[in-house]
TrEMBL record:
Pfam families: Beta-Casp, Lactamase_B, RMMBL. Gene3D superfamilies: 3.40.50.10890, Ribonuclease Z/Hydroxyacylglutathione hydrolase-like (3.60.15.10). Keywords: Hydrolase. This is Metallo-beta-lactamase family protein,RNA-specific. Coiled coil: none annotated.
Length: 464
């Protein structure tokens, strides 16, 4: 018997985690951090015993898929974590950074608790806990059969979402019959910068598919041109362009697009604009992107033939220290790319504090904003937001560019689903999306296929 339990990303977009049980094994696909309105779930006990988990398959390094791995290890997990080589490298730096954020959040919360006479709390995990995960990571090449034991093996295919992101083909022998369970992971936007488009699978008995943008359509070419225009117009009016960007993935894609515009098309107006990358994690991640050229698409490889560094250009400055970051608040007519992407932590909050109230400035969102996050509140039209306890008026231009997202839109999801050569035999589980988007994708998938589609509840179990 094979059983699956949805321990995260059920009717939501964060906390991806799936528990698979067989007669011999218990293992996870992803172990992500809950974010936004669901972040309190991180404080709850795992809905399983970490000591009993034999291994983990990690689809990619984004924190909503990997962010509770340090906690899993802290609670007694001793197995291997299988992922691609690029994911291995990214996870090493991201989980240490996540641990640091957990420590800072605990310090800030304890200051409030001390004033109120409340008991102090411990961080969910520390940077040291995050660093320990590296000892459990096992790299698996794309399209390579990795045998776990006599009854279980996996094959990872490129998901086109992030450097090293993967679709998981999971094969389990059950009562003498091999069943194929496929996890889409996060599927990438078509023609995303730098990395290759997603690969297709030939069939699945059961499919777990994401639905982040299951009710929207993107337009990458028009939004790229819009980004250039927004930057030029804002700088012309002496305003700042603030881009909250995920340190890993989105930031490198933005750098690639700006580099392409500046160094290839030779636009004189753009080459004199000062662009600052204010995220130590993003700088580390950029070096990893440079290392893993095996993940590059044909266009990026062609660019390398005449530009030996597609992620840097002469008017780009990497901001390293806190003091240098603070100095940016005194500048005007510049572009600042900073993390975190959902504006929940990191240096971006300071830049928003100093720019949201300025009518001449622009805040450009290039990634998904989960419910309950500061980024989502700004996008939803809040007139004022609280940052570091201070109420800040929202006067800047607020621009959303979902076409620059790393997630496939509805068209991309459908293209991938229709590309499954022999279809899905048994059932489709729709996850990693807010309920309205998941329901929309479900309705459309049921019109193009006779396979039953289900939107599972949090902690719901199914026998496969």
């Amino acid at each position: 018997m094979i059983k699956i339990k949805f321990c995260g990303a059920a009717k939501s977009v964060t906390g991806s985690c799936y528990l698979i049980e067989t007669s011999e094994r218990k293992f996870l696909v992803d172990c992500g951090l809950f974010q936004g309105k669901e972040s309190k779930t991180n404080q709850s006990n795992f809905p399983f015993n970490p000591e009993e988990i034999d291994f983990v398959i990690l689809t990619h390094a984004h924190i909503d898929h990997s962010g509770r791995l340090p906690l899993l290890v802290k609670k007694g997990f001793k197995g291997s974590i299988f992922c691609t080589s690029a994911t291995q490298d990214l996870a090493k730096i991201m989980l240490v950074d996540s641990g640091h954020i957990q420590e800072m959040d605990a310090i800030n919360e304890n200051k409030k608790r001390q004033r109120k006479g409340l008991p102090l709390i411990e961080p969910l995990y520390t940077a040291e806990d995050g660093d320990k995960v590296k000892d459990y990571l096992v790299a698996v090449p794309y399209n390579h059969v990795q045998r776990i034991d006599n009854d279980i093996y996996i094959n990872l295919k490129d998901a086109g979402h992030l450097l090293g992101s993967s679709i998981v083909e999971l094969f389990i022998k059950d009562d003498g019959v091999t069943k194929k369970i496929v996890f889409s992971g996060d599927l990438g936007n078509i023609n995303i910068p730098i990395i290759k488009d997603y690969e297709y699978i030939d069939y699945a008995d059961y499919l777990i598919i994401e639905s982040t943008y299951g009710n929207r359509f993107h337009s990458i070419p028009s939004e790229v041109q819009s980004l250039y225009a927004i930057i030029l117009n804002t700088i012309k009016n002496n305003g700042n362009v603030i881009i909250p960007s995920f340190a890993v993935g989105r930031t490198q894609e933005i750098l690639y697009l700006l580099n392409k515009y500046i160094d290839i098309e030779k636009r004189k107006d753009f080459i004199n604009i000062q662009i600052y990358l204010d995220s130590p994690l993003a700088e580390e991640a950029t070096e990893i992107f440079k290392k893993h050229k095996e993940c590059y698409d044909e266009e990026a490889l062609n660019m390398l033939s005449f530009d030996n560094d597609v992620l840097e250009f002469k008017n780009l400055t990497f901001v390293k220290t806190k003091e240098e970051s603070m100095e940016l608040n005194n500048k005007s007519g510049v572009v600042i790319i900073s993390s975190s992407g959902m504006c929940e932590a990191g240096r971006i909050k300071h830049h928003l504090k100093y720019n949201l109230w300025k009518k001449e400035s622009a805040i450009v969102f290039v990634g998904y904003q989960a419910e309950g996050t500061l980024g989502r509140r700004i996008l939803d039209g809040a007139k004022k937001v609280k940052i570091f306890g201070e109420e800040i008026a929202v006067n800047a231009k607020i621009i959303n560019m979902p076409g620059l997202s790393g997630h496939a839109d509805l068209q991309g999801l459908l293209k991938w689903y229709k590309g499954i050569n022999k279809g899905v035999n048994k059932k489709v589980f729709i996850t990693h999306g807010e309920i309205e988007t998941a329901m929309n994708l479900k309705a459309i998938l049921e019109t193009v296929s006779s396979t039953s589609c289900v939107i599972p509840e949090y902690l719901e179990e199914y026998i496969l």
